[in-house]
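Protein modeling request. Please complete all fields; requests missing the sequence field cannot be processed.
Requester role: graduate student
Desired output: 3D structure, token encoding
Chains: 1
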Amino acid sequence: MNNDNWQWWHYFLSIAEKGSLSKAAEQLDVSQPTLSRQLLSMEKQLGHSLFDRSTQGLTLTNFGESLVEECRQMQASAERLERLAAGHKSTLSGRVRLAANELVALYYLPKILPLFMQRYPEVSVEVEVSNLASNLDKRDADVAVRMFAPIQLDLVCRRIMEIPLGFFASSEYLAKNGVPKFPDEIFKHRVIGYDRDKQFENAGQKLGWEVNNEHFLMRTDFMPMHLEFARHHGGIVVTHKNLCFEAGLKEINAGIDLPPLPVYLACHRDVQHNKKIRVLMDFLAEHLPTLI
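Delivered output (292 residues):
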């Protein structure tokens, strides 16, 4: 193999996992013709075909299949080396990537990150906004704010606070539709729910509620819209109490005590000693609870 052998194996693994040159090229950020030429060169040098071609895509040959697991281990080692190298950088400069869900990103981080950037002007902060858990192994993010305890053994996590939850609506909505006083009256109202996201369903079932997303007349997985819809008299929202109070919504006390939402900070154990990552985690642990 030539000097580009790791790049070739990286390309090979991406094609094997995607089963398509076009999808692998998109993931690798290279053109499809370039990737196809690299694959042909690799097969020519190895003297064996790695994939069978068909109209349905690419499937591994027996020879290609025999190489995949070793290639995955090579990639895991390369990613670990990258994390370890990043963890030994001690200066407070460079990039740090923070992952948070929509509510945290929109209503919490803008209130505190300007102070962090003022303190550390040479640190570039990138925020990934997603309600899905970022892959800290692959450095999709350096630090993640999560509403559940990470279970991966290679992650370091810190529980920093709990967010009280409640049922809320606008005064105008309650004046027109009445105030629910008992649990079974809540879902006779227009409760704002989720679409494909199952978190409301799953949480409700743990509390003994027979509820699914189809019960909701207003559904969206974009969480800030829940709050805004309630603020504009659209129905009852179940979300962070502090955000609802800030929005001028009224709490509905219908005999339901919702468990608070735990908040964790997580990073990969290989980068926990990276100075800028540690400083960011300490900063978030200090300032996020002040917003509740």
